[in-house]
């Protein structure tokens, strides 16, 4: 059987150069990786990084023969779809700047999310609202910090006008598990399942993590501890 016919590509989910950690303290960490078959992959989507040149199919299979662990950077659009895979012949490994480093002082890029209730949420339609993006791993295990969701809900409910806040919870878990694991009634959070591509796009390396985006679409910060989040102060600064 030829290499071309027998090739099965399994892409590891690389959330960051470092392993994700869990818990509320920096001293607590659990190694956690997930592997999956990338059903979106096709050789026709592989391009040389920094160019608009497609990697010829024959060249790609030669690269795989030489390096079965070939790294391909995934390009993910606003809706979380993989549009291209980038091959960098000059890549030597090592840590690179994270996605979020570019947006701590500037407009946060638009996103388009689909919730488990079929609501479409697009950042460009949320101007004038304070946006909370919360990232969790599983919905049905101890890693899901339900008490922190309650704390965030309490902060939102304490506002004079809570309708100025849009809260979104993105899980790297299936819709069925999200429906099973999220049992908070009357929560302010819209729920998004299967958020793996968004987690990778925003280089989320620690779970849970909470991003807050101001009413003008600028990233205020990425928070590990919900106690650090002061919604009233952010709204007063607008």
Automatic annotation (TrEMBL):
<dbReference type="Pfam" id="PF00578">
    <property type="entry name" value="AhpC-TSA"/>
</dbReference>
<feature type="signal peptide">
    <location>
        <begin position="1"/>
        <end position="23"/>
    </location>
</feature>
<dbReference type="GO" id="GO:0016209">
    <property type="term" value="F:antioxidant activity"/>
</dbReference>
<keyword id="KW-0732">Signal</keyword>
<feature type="domain" description="Alkyl hydroperoxide reductase subunit C/ Thiol specific antioxidant">
    <location>
        <begin position="107"/>
        <end position="219"/>
    </location>
</feature>
<dbReference type="GO" id="GO:0016491">
    <property type="term" value="F:oxidoreductase activity"/>
</dbReference>
<dbReference type="InterPro" id="IPR000866">
    <property type="entry name" value="AhpC/TSA"/>
</dbReference>
<dbReference type="InterPro" id="IPR036249">
    <property type="entry name" value="Thioredoxin-like_sf"/>
</dbReference>
<protein>
    <submittedName>
        <fullName>Redoxin domain-containing protein</fullName>
    </submittedName>
</protein>
